[in-house]
Write a structure and sequence with these properties.
Number of strands of chain B: 8
Strand content of chain A: over 45%
Largest sheet of chain B: 8 strands, antiparallel, barrel
Distance between the termini of chain A: 38 Å
Strand order of the largest sheet of chain B: 1-2-3-4-5-6-7-8
CATH topology of chain A: Porin
Strand order of the largest sheet of chain A: 1-2-3-4-5-6-7-9
Number of helices of chain A: 1
Distance between the termini of chain B: 45 Å
Largest sheet of chain A: 8 strands, antiparallel, barrel
CATH topology of chain B: Porin
Helix content of chain A: 10-25%
Radius of gyration of chain A: 21 Å
Oligomer: heterodimer
Chain lengths: 187, 211
């Protein structure tokens, strides 16, 4: 009797999941997020803190167009190498599977707006410059609720700061996660 | 007999007319597509042998079944071995000619050859001396590439082209003196031929049809 009840429960549970999956449609989802991100620049041994956000639109179940922004707060450990390192990105992502669990990989092109810090007394204000970036990213979204989803993003940015005073690699790993807002995604 | 002949002529005109309309409709459908995209351009074999990285965007207008056009802008920076840098800005257009009979089909490659023209601005800066120089010029480019159409509306494009600048020549030399690198900027006025290879990866989305 217990075994029968157990298998009936499993069957009902899987049926509910299938119903949920069939009721979910990725095409037309518009999602946006705002959260904090940590970054690590291996070449400069810098740990950075950012406010990051994105907007994304699913043109079909597999492809989405996506724009991201990162606002640089500071490097941890009071490191003054960078005073500013804001960036914007635009590109697309490819999504795997069909359901509410939504793993993806993406590729974006970006632009960093960077200024080095004053690391010695008597230095004048350093110049600001724009540096092109190329950035692959990966992660997943989980559309658990009608309006909200969970997400994790891992990004690598490749670029180089070329200013009048310094040449620095801007290569950086970034991780962010949190709760995002979405509309669409249901039949 | 005469009536039959007239009826036949009208029938032929009618059939050929309807065929023409279908062909015209197909031709309309295969042109006028408007796409926007973002692109990363890498500049190779340029000053001092250093590669450059770029950021840019483009829009694409399809002129016919096998002819497309790219209208682009790029901003490229190049690290000159840590002792200087070069900045290039390009704005221009290219014509893409597809090598397959039925290009832009979903889940297929669409190889093309391209040729075009652009206007550009270049600045070279030496860190040690603080010296810099710049120039405006025009350029022509040609190359090869291919789209991969992930869907009816979205493609990823990889292309390689050789861009030849027409105008005054601006370049940097790095020479070694007692193990210390120095950067020297040279500008030659007049008509010169200076070029570089550009490899571009772009992501493009078709918004709709212009006509």
């Amino acid at each position: 009797m217990f075994v029968l009840f157990f298998f009936m429960s499993l069957s009902l549970l899987s049926q509910n999941k299938e119903d949920d999956a069939s009721a979910f449609k990725r095409k037309g989802i518009f999602r946006t997020t705002l959260t904090f991100a940590t970054g690590y620049m291996p070449a400069n041994n810098l740990n950075n803190l950012y406010l990051t956000g994105n907007i994304e639109y699913y043109t079909d179940s597999r492809i989405s167009l996506r724009g991201d922004g990162m606002y640089f707060f500071n490097s941890m450990n009071q490191d003054k190498t960078l005073k500013m390192n804001h960036s914007i990105y635009s590109g697309a992502a490819y999504h795997f599977g069909q359901g509410q669990f939504d793993p993806f990989v993406g590729l974006q092109t970006g632009l960093a707006y960077t200024q080095c810090g004053i690391i010695q007394q008597g230095m004048s204000e350093r110049s600001k410059s724009f540096s092109p970036l190329i950035s692959p990213l990966a992660g997943f979204n989980y559309y658990a609720h009608k309006w909200f989803h969970l997400f994790i993003n891992i990004r690598y940015s490749y670029g180089r700061l070329l200013s009048n005073e310094a040449i620095l690699p801007l290569n950086e790993w970034n991780v962010s996660f949190g709760l995002g807002f979405n509309v669409g995604g249901r039949k | 007999m005469k009536t039959l002949l007239i009826a036949f002529v009208f029938l032929v005109i009618d059939i050929s007319g309807s065929r023409l309309s279908a062909q015209e409709a197909k031709a309309v459908k295969e042109s006028g597509q408007f796409s926007i995209g973002v692109r990363n351009t890498n500049s190779l074999f340029t000053d001092a042998g250093s590669p450059g990285t770029g950021f840019g965007g483009q829009f694409r207008i399809r002129m016919g079944k096998r002819i497309n056009t790219d209208w682009f802008a790029d901003y490229i920076t190049t690290d000159l071995q840590g002792i200087g840098f070069r900045r290039d800005a390009h704005i221009g257009w290219s014509v893409l000619f597809y090598m397959t009979k039925n290009p832009l089909q979903e889940k297929k490659l669409s190889p093309f050859i391209l040729a075009g023209h652009c206007f550009d601005y270049t600045k070279v800066y030496a860190l040690e001396s603080g010296a810099s120089d710049d120039r405006w010029s025009s350029a022509v480019q040609m190359g090869l590439g291919s789209h991969y159409n992930f869907s009816d509306r979205f493609d990823v494009t990889l292309m390689a082209q050789y861009m030849n600048h027409l105008g005054s020549d601006l370049h940097a030399h790095i020479h070694n003196e007692n193990g210390v690198k120095h950067l020297e900027i040279e500008k030659h006025s007049g008509i010169g031929l200076e070029g570089h290879v550009l490899v571009t990866l772009s992501l493009n989305y078709r918004l709709g049809n212009l006509w």
